[in-house]
Amino acid sequence: MSRYITRLRMRRTYKWNGRPVGEDRKLKRQYYESMSISVEGKTEDATVSLGQYILIEGDDDDNPFVAQLLKLYTDDSGKKKTAVLQWFVRMCEVPQNKRKLLGRDPHPQEIFFYQDRSCDNEVDGETILGAVQIEYVPVQDPFPVGKSRDILFVKLLWDTKSFRALDPELMQPSQSPKSPPPSSRGPQTRALPTPDPSVMKRAMSGILTRGSMSTGKMSSSEAESLHSASKLSAAKALSAKRRSQAVSGPQVRKKLDLCSPSKNMSRDDVLGELLDERSEKTLTSKLNTSPTGRISISIRLTPLNLNKEECVSPLSSHSPDKPRMTAHDKDDAARARTPSRRKDSAALREPALAALAEEEHEDSPINTAATSRSKRKSAQLVSSRIKKQLNLLGNKIGLQSDGEDGDDDDCFIPSKIDLQSSSDEEEEAKIDSEDELIVKKHRGSGTSRSTEKTRVSARTPRKTPSKKTAPATPRTPRHATPSIPSRTAPARKPGNVLEEARARLHVSSVPESLPCREQEFQDIYNFVESKVIDGTGGCMYISGVPGTGKTATVHEVIRSLQQSAEQDEIPHFRFIEINGMKMTDPHQAYVQILQKLTDQKATPDHAAALLEKRFSAPAPKKETVVLLVDELDLLWTRKQNVMYNLFDWPTRRNARLVVLTIANTMDLPERIMINRVASRLGLTRMSFQPYTFKQLQQIITSRLNRVKAFEEDALQLVSRKVAALSGDARRCLDICRRATEICEHSGSQKNSSGLVGMSHVMEALDEMFSSSYISAIRCASVQEQLFLRAVIAEFRRLGLEEATFQQVFVQHQALCRVEGLQPANVSEGLTVCQRLGSCRLLLLEGSRLDLFLRIRLNVSQDDVLYALKAD
Amino acid sequence: VQDRCGCVLMMLCDGVCVQAQKLLRERLCHQKLPDQPVGLDSQYKHLLELLRRTAVHGESNSVLIVGPRGSGKTMLLGCVLRELMSLKEAQKNVLLVELNEKLQLCNETKSLGFLVFQGSFAENLAFLLEALKKGDKSSSRPVLFVLDEFDLFAHHKNQTLLYNLLDVSQSAQTPVAVLGLTCRLDVLELLEKRVKSRFSHRQIHLFSSLSFAQYLDVVRAQLSLPPDFPDPKFSDEWNHSVTKLCEDKTVEEILRRNFNGSKDFRSLHSLLFLAVSRVSVSHSTLREADLIEAWRLISVDSKANVLHGLSILELCLIIAMKHLNDTYDGEPFNFQMVHNEFKKFIQRKSHSIHKFEKPVVMKAFEHLLQLELVRPVDSGVCKVQREYQLMRLMLEHGQVMEALQRYPQCPTDVKQWALSAFG
Known about the structure:
The complex is a heterodimer of chains A (871) and B (423).
Chain A: E1 12-17, E2 22-24, E3 29-32, E4 34-39, E5 46-49, E6 53-56, E7 65-74, E8 81-90, H1 96-99, E9 110-114, E10 122-124, E11 128-131, E12 134-136, E13 152-158, E14 163-165, H2 185-191, H3 195-203, H4 205-209, H5 231-248, H6 250-259, H7 262-277, H8 282-300, H9 303-308, H10 324-335, H11 339-374, H12 377-411, H13 415-419, H14 421-443, H15 451-458, H16 469-472, H17 497-505, H18 518-534, E15 538-544, H19 550-566, E16 573-579, H20 588-598, H21 604-616, E17 624-630, H22 641-648, E18 657-663, H23 668-672, H24 675-681, E19 685-688, H25 693-704, H26 712-725, H27 729-750, H28 758-769, H29 773-778, H30 782-798, E20 803-804, H31 805-819, H32 826-838, E21 842-844, E22 854-857, H33 861-869
Parallel strand pairs in A: 9-13, 12-13, 15-18, 15-19, 16-17, 17-18
Antiparallel strand pairs in A: 1-4, 2-3, 3-7, 4-5, 6-7, 6-11, 7-8, 8-9, 8-10, 13-14, 20-22, 21-22
Helix pairs in contact in A: 5-6, 5-10, 5-18, 7-8, 8-11, 8-12, 10-19, 11-12, 17-27, 18-19, 20-21, 22-24, 25-26, 26-27, 26-28, 27-28, 30-31, 30-33
Chain B: H1 2-12, H2 16-28, H3 41-57, E1 61-66, H4 73-86, H5 88-91, E2 95-99, H6 105-111, H7 121-134, E3 143-147, H8 150-153, H9 160-169, E4 176-182, H10 187-190, H11 193-198, E5 203-205, H12 212-223, H13 232-247, H14 249-261, H15 265-277, H16 288-299, H17 304-308, H18 312-328, H19 335-348, H20 358-370, E6 374-376, E7 391-393, H21 397-406, H22 412-419
Parallel strand pairs in B: 1-4, 1-5, 2-3, 3-4
Antiparallel strand pairs in B: 6-7
Helix pairs in contact in B: 2-15, 3-4, 12-13, 15-16, 18-19
């Protein structure tokens, strides 16, 4: 099926064609016009040159990425080849829930011009597979028929939110790759992934330069400081940024970007382009064109960023001195966000967008003035062309902004649905798999597309959820859908205060916030956030006794991260959850991860192999995966390979996997893991302490949330009691719930205050904590009580805590005579003994031993005597 | 056997007597749930209220019903479910899944009314969890999971099933009620701590605090014929005789002994069942003799009948073993020792019993071994000659003596030997 040669099968060698056309001394780069790819076993070399459309190796061999080659350069060592690209996406790479936006069936050979600010546009030159032919088709025209299957068609533009008509200017025929018309440059550059997220990346260029971002990334920032902020400070910077954003909208955002070194990046790009065009004027023009660099910045910035230019206030994004807590507060605010607020933000954005066009016009004369100073014809030419392009662009952006806003409004659904996203996701998956079917059909017709890639990359640019489309589609059931039949009558709502309190106190009710876990929340939040922003991977181990809110806190973190991702504050990521208890075998973990990631079914071995490949293969457009592994200790196997893999994947260069693990014991890594596993887990650990009574009290109060159902003392009693025993919040809530029931029953009789008081709580506590052995003994029959007495008598005689039935039976008969009862025979005695054994008042051996079965007491002798005496 | 008995009687005479007998038998065989559980009112209310909340409000719950065997756990649950299903709003809204220890998860998915599909255990589990996860509190039908013999589920690997069911009950998924029935008081200690944390710790204990007077009332109620019995004359007569029977001293004694043995109704029912079965057309009322006979059958020692059928030689061997037990204080013995003891008896005291060849004695000994009246001390490892293999007597002193008393035509010298302090 696969027609594309990949590295796995054949070795390709890459060579520069000709001499470098330009050089950047500062960045120690040499620019080239074309590159030849020679494949082992083939005589003729393929050549790719600037402006040509090329295929890039992806996660999937059958369905490589498509892009237009913009730049080729090498670093000073000459070994590393980097390509700057304009991406195109296939339909299968568009998220399933967005595909409906197209409004028609996609042509099998159709691709879309990809416009995403957050997408990385530099790849390793050695991932280029070869050239491909792309044709631009105007929007109104039908797709040409009878063309070669290798040709791909571009009709529309995909900006991660909607499909829009593609400006033909953006698409230049690639027949003259050597010297593409300069006018095409502007729009292309503009459409390149632009700085908003990259601004943040620059802010922590230290990480970036380590190159863990993507394939063979050679970012311009390499020339910049390596000494910059640590990951955490970057995270702080971002949270600070978000904080200010939430407070004052886009205005503040501008300031932050100002200080970030995004300028360098864009200037650099422009330089490269200029060099491409005018190779003869390389070095001299470079210095002079630096003012033009400014122009291109404004071109490249998307509306919001452009606006930022205005503000010159020195407040920097590197000011993490604000207290961390505010970030948390902000999250709360975000969580409580209402539809109206969301609309507001959209509305806020609009003026900003409108301002853009004007601004550009303002900018451009200045720029031309600047260039004219340089008195160079070439520079003038370039700048005038850019100017022309700018005008064009201004109109276009206006259009785009409309589209975006409309889309925003449409896509928004009240947050309630967001919470249920898990089930919706499944629906999506269904649709996905059906799309696959279609894709498969088309496969035969030539455009090779692979299902795997469909799934993998389809999820990448997940933006605002447009879930409204998903459930509406009628589809034929292919599998048995796991579901519970729905009830005929709706569930009744709580009627009175006590019922209301009970509903709120149920462990399953999702609280608005998690009190008493702020610090833990913040730590986990920072950890995950920094990893997501960096696009790196990492592990974290969370421990704590049951019922201390470990899983709840992690879910809370993910929820708020997903919210900020929806608002484009951080890159998108996927969240996957597995639970050691919810699988029959540790190796099933692979199967479940794979299924949740790509909706594929596979055997454990195969799934492990696929995941291995996925996490080690370089893929420029991959999004971060956050994996929660609950009940980690159950994934233990003798060779520990499941745990090993889980912790090893995040360390891979291209994995972008964050693993959060949860277990009960603090020293689990030391106790059950062999060294190489424990070492990979790392030292990022956190332990959840059992709740103190004050915290428990606070939890109950916050859950009750002004529903007055408990007396203060009663609450304190419960929380103190539970804190002394286990600190388990679940227990605490259960007791309170039971107390409301008791109150309800007694309230009807006594007509008391209606609040849950001390007596009710005491009763509930007694029910839950008191041992039932004593009442069991008291309620036992006469013979059973006698037998217990005989057991104790025999123990006393022997001085041991164990006796055979025969010995006890002799005592039993003697006691019967003392009590004036007819002595039981052996069969009766055994029956009595067995009955006590089945209640576990006695511990017995197997009954086949008959007379010689050994008996032990499961209760203390004192308890037995106490129970019998009180009788 | 009981059914056949009933059939035979039916064929013999078809009358009111048989009808009454049939009715009582049905009652005693638990074929029908009682109208109201006896002495379990508070537990009944508690459980009903709990399940009602699950069915009506969609509140997830978990509860354990703990009580000794025969204390009426299943009966209580049956009554509660009957009442629950009679509620209009619960009727169509509840799915019931009953699980026994042996049932596979596959059956569980089946009984939830899903399409049954062939798949591995892992797939089934994933499927079930997915299904439960998709539901929510307000719209999906509550599912009641009844786990009979709850303690045995705790022995499953990792307690996966319990963890998952209880986890669903503690999270915002399909409303479920997990009902566990068990007779073990220490069942919570069997649960792993994370499973235990998810359990609501709600336990309903069924301990009968019945007094003997109440017990007698129950007996009377169980034996009485209902007022809507077709033949009022017969039913009056019958009920009168039952009242008289309960006042009888011997009957009371028997019932008290039964009551002392165990308070549960299961043993009472088996006693009454035997008594009721003895009623026939010739004597159409329940007499005290019937009850005495039934008691005799029920309380008989299981080994007494075996001893009754032994030969004199075998009985002698048992007496010899008893003496060995006395002398060596319960230490195990071998055939050779028993044979020596037996030879001493023959030589010194015996008049009636002739000398037996050793192989004959050996044969008798092996017969005892087969009857498991003697049992080898567990040492199958090293091969020892059969004569020297260590054995234990599986009889209590009293059982031997009683058997001797009852043995028909037992020689007096054997009896004396058994009674004598030394071999």
